[in-house]
Amino acid sequence: MLGSVVSVQFGGALAVTLLPLIGVAGSVALRLGIATVLLCGWLRPSPRGRSRADWGAAAAYAVVLGSMNLCFYGSLQRLPIGVAVTIEFIGPLVLSAVLSRHLRDLLAVLLAAAGVLLVSGAIGTPLDRLDGTGIMLGLGAGACWAAYIVTSRGAGRHFAGLDGLAIAMLMATVVVLPLGLVEAGGSLFSPTALLKGAGIAVLSSVLPYSLELVALRRLSPQVFGILLSLEPVVAAGAGLLVLGQRLSLLKLAGMLFVVAASVLILGAARGAGQPPRDV
């Protein structure tokens, strides 16, 4: 599970280096396209014998999947990766708290909200210097992550294993690829872009999915949630090591608030663990 967390966040850090080359839509199209080829080649999902309800579940999953990636990569273009991941985390935390209806979890969400306020720089920074668009994209990615959890469970009821994810990724790629071509043009298929895109696809999709499948057979949902809560910290480490991004003490304190809230909510989760996340 730790390997999965590290892989996802270093994949995100690598994506930051791809964004200046081919933009947000181009990066998402390349990352989804290569990941789809690898995942479909591995799983070989069959479209035969699917009902209208099956395709509806896959389509909803695909819409959320594409939107989540576009919002998250858009936030990465404007914010340090540690800040973007921390802000994004508010989505699944709110969903978990609403579903649990425990006072402890609601208080944990307030703690996370305070952490996001610190991480965003809203305290002590003039409004005209805040990157409101980046913050809103991060919150949008968080909302999509919450919707991703819901739609992935819906797809899980209609498809075996990761077949629903593979089909949804294919559908999302078909929609996003034309946007990527418009934004990036021929640069989308440059050797550098393809090499980085392949690295992102492996680090952000194929490797973490494989590791999480193994981890979920051995770990309780509580331990899984606690380890997942380390993502903001690992993202900050990846941002420092790969991108040279340094966060202020105030932002680091806010990040710890969110991690603490995540441990309280996800670490005490009742029921199945979180599904793999395609970000």
Automatic annotation (TrEMBL):
It is a multi-pass membrane protein. The keyword Nucleotide-binding does not apply. This is EamA family transporter. Belongs to the EamA transporter family. SUPFAM superfamilies: Multidrug resistance efflux transporter EmrE. The keyword Aminoacyl-tRNA synthetase does not apply. The chain crosses the membrane at residues 12-43, 55-75, 81-99, 106-127, 133-150, 162-181, 223-243, 249-269. One of its GO terms (cellular component) is plasma membrane. It is found in: Cell membrane. Its main location: membrane. Residues 133-266 form the EamA domain. PANTHER family: INNER MEMBRANE PROTEIN YTFF (PTHR42920:SF11), OS03G0707200 PROTEIN-RELATED (PTHR42920). It comes from the Bacteria. Keywords: Cell membrane, Membrane, Transmembrane, Transmembrane helix.
